[in-house]
Amino acid sequence: MGAGAKHGVSDGFGGSRGGADEPPRLVLGLGNPGERYSDTRHNLGFRVVEELARRLDVRLGLKVCGALWSAATPVDLATPQTYMNRSGYSARCLSERNGYAPENILVVYDEVHLPLGRLRLRGRGSPGGHRGMESIIENLRTTEVPRLRLGIAAEGAEEADGSAGGRKGDLTDFVLGPFAGGEVETAARMVCRAADCVLSWADRGVDITMNEYNG
């Protein structure tokens, strides 16, 4: 069944309207476009959305607002193709076109402040130094944006300063590098669990899902 056929009501872009009283919701996975970045730690947000697209049997094929986008049930899906630091443009544009309120946009991205394999869901907050989330908050003009962070910190890394190697250059190399051989399986399991978490958020809301999935 195609994406458009899954909705009782559709806007101009086929955005989800699960029922008359249900607002449209969007899962926005962050990353960088292109083969060069596809397997990097910084692209975990893309991977989670791609896993959701597989489960919901939709294809992220429509280019809208600088993002690959698809209507789906229970949530629409998008991956901004603007590069990480300009993710906010897609968030704002999609919000304006499809009517997603900030509190109904779940942003999914990597987090160097968390150990590899750990998930952290929050309903609001500061960007915490993440440039993609910073761009989204700036464009939506509110910190009331749910976010799901996926831990990528290597074992023994200092979480306090948010770095993998201590220096800014080391951190950039770290997030833009691929997972080490021993980390690949853990990262794959985390992506699947993050997809479970997103679907729980769509079904049961932030508070219940936080209690179940936050490590």
Could you list some keywords that capture this structure?
33% helix, 215 residues, single chain, 6 helices, seven-stranded mixed sheet, alpha/beta, Rossmann fold, 7 strands
Please write out the topology.
Layout: E1 26-29, H1 44-56, E2 62-64, E3 67-70, E4 76-80, H2 87-98, E5 105-115, E6 119-122, H3 131-140, E7 147-153, H4 168-175, H5 184-204, H6 206-213
Helix pairs in contact: 1-5, 2-3, 5-6
Structural commentary:
The protein has a 7-stranded mixed β-sheet, sandwiched between helices. The protein has 6 helices and 7 strands, in the order βαβββαββαβααα. It has one domain (3-213): Rossmann fold, CATH 3.40.50. Helix 2 runs parallel beside helix 3 (131-140). A hairpin with a 5-residue loop joins strand 3 and strand 4 (76-80). The model is unreliable at 1-12 and 158-166 (pLDDT under 50). By secondary structure, the protein is α/β, with parallel strands linked by helices. 33% of the residues lie in helices and 18% in strands. The chain has helices spanning 44-56, 87-98, 131-140, 168-175, 184-204, 206-213, and strands at 26-29, 62-64, 67-70, 76-80, 105-115, 119-122, 147-153.
Summarize the entry for a quick read.
This protein is α/β, with parallel strands linked by helices and 215 residues long. It is built from six helices and seven strands.
Radius of gyration, CA atoms, in whole angstroms: 16 Å
The count of helical stretches stands at 6
Q: What's the number of structural domains?
A: 1
Helix content: 25-40%
Percentage beta strand: 15-25%
Q: Biggest sheet, strands in spatial order?
A: 2-3-4-1-5-7-6
